[in-house]
Amino acid sequence: MDSRTRLHYEHRARVMKALAHPTRLFIVDQLGHDERCVCELTEMVGVDVSTISRHLSVLKNAGIVADEKRGTQVFYSLRVPCVLRWYACVDGVLKDVARQRQLAVG
Description:
- The protein contains 5 helices and 3 strands, in the order H-H-E-H-H-E-E-H.
- It is of the alpha+beta class.
- The chain has one domain: Winged helix-like DNA-binding domain superfamily/Winged helix DNA-binding domain (Arc Repressor Mutant, subunit A).
- A 3-stranded antiparallel β-sheet has the order 1-3-2.
């Protein structure tokens, strides 16, 4: 694999790593419905502001979300809605695995 190809896969891995946490998956799912301020996400997830901010930072650095400061609040939105199609793919895999397990059991 040449260096350019490797770099491409490293960038893909960074996006996937950013999504590899249940809280971040939840945040992305919520942002798929509408933009949210940090305070809303904090309340929805049930953790402190610094924890939500760290998760949002990971998602922002991966290019998945965008932020906009309005007064004292920061609002986040989904920068790439196509990630929600990936969610549908993952759900398809989960359904198939469950179906296969059910067939194996009996």
